[in-house]
């Protein structure tokens, strides 16, 4: 359980780091602001269209009597919007990191530099880094989509759907948020997606301690934008812990990009 607290500590340390380096905080805000405008527009559209979508998807219930028709469609509307919000929280980080790739790479490098030791560089051209980030993000989103469908289905189970499922949803959100954010620093260290996932699984509580509070905070409008620079800084500090010398002799040690052929 101590790892949970340590993971949350990295989140706080990251916010403190950008607080001491105001220029990097300002640089890190811009990609989040752009992504926020896009996501607000999408969620507003979903909010207006969710009722019509549910009505279209449930023609078999048109002849149901009250209150069952209203109960079914209201429940499904809430679930659809909840699923959209869940996906927005997950994908916001990926999209923001993709938009701000050069900014966040520089921020992460500066964190490494201020903390001492080696400052790894990928040595890849920007287009290649963007391609790898986009490809890995799609792979993560496929995994998230599968979990979303499963959790959506489990949400119909009485009691379980209103208690356990939301908790699992936030754990899934937090885990993959942590993966997306630590990827900035771990990709610079030549680590492939499969190795990054294995590394995070090996310290699951540490990962959840960092990602779950961040996922909860991201549900508050505008908070995600202001937390992103510190989240990247904190994820870099977390990545430094994960690949510390005592951890580098296991199967999750960085794999060079030269092996990344697909």
TrEMBL record:
UniProt keyword list: Amino-acid biosynthesis, Cell inner membrane, Cell membrane, Membrane, Sulfate transport, Transmembrane, Transmembrane helix, Transport
Biological-process GO terms, alphabetical: cysteine biosynthetic process; sulfate assimilation
GO MF annotations in UniProt: high-affinity sulfate:proton symporter activity
Membrane topology label: Multi-pass membrane protein
Sequence intervals crossing the membrane: 24-50, 70-99, 140-161, 167-186, 206-228
InterPro entries in alphabetical order: CysZ-like, CysZ/EI24
One Gene Ontology cellular component annotation held by this UniProt entry: plasma membrane
Locations listed in the record: Membrane
Keyword Lipoprotein included in the entry's annotation: no
Taxonomic superkingdom: Bacteria
Pfam families, A to Z: EI24 (PF07264)
Annotated PANTHER family: SULFATE TRANSPORTER CYSZ
This protein's name: CysZ protein
């Amino acid at each position: 359980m101590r790892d949970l607290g340590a993971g949350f500590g990295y989140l706080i340390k990251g916010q403190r780091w950008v607080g001491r380096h105001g220029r990097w905080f300002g640089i890190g805000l811009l990609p989040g602001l752009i992504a926020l405008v896009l996501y607000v527009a999408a969620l507003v559209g979903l909010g207006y269209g969710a009722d019509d979508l549910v009505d279209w998807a449930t023609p078999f219930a048109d002849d149901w009597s009250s209150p069952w028709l209203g109960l079914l469609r209201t429940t499904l509307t809430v679930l659809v919007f909840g699923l959209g919000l869940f996906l927005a929280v997950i994908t916001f980080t990926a999209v923001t990191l993709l938009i701000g790739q050069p900014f966040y790479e520089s921020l992460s490098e500066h964190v490494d530099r201020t903390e001492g030791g080696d400052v790894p560089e990928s040595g890849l051209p920007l287009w290649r880094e963007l391609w790898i980030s986009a490809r890995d993000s799609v792979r993560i989103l496929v995994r998230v989509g599968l979990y979303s469908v499963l959790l959506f289905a489990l949400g119909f189970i009485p009691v379980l759907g209103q208690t356990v499922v939301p908790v699992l949803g936030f754990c899934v959100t937090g885990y993959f948020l942590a993966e997306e954010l630590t990827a900035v620093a771990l990709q610079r260290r030549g680590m492939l997606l499969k190795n990054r996932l294995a590394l995070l699984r090996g310290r699951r509580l540490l990962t959840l301690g960092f990602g779950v509070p961040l996922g909860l905070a991201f549900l508050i409008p505008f908070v995600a934008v202001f937390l992103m620079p510190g989240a990247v800084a904190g994820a870099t500090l977390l990545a430094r812990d994960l690949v510390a010398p005592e951890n580098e002799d296991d199967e999750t040690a960085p794999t060079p990009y030269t092996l990344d052929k697909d």
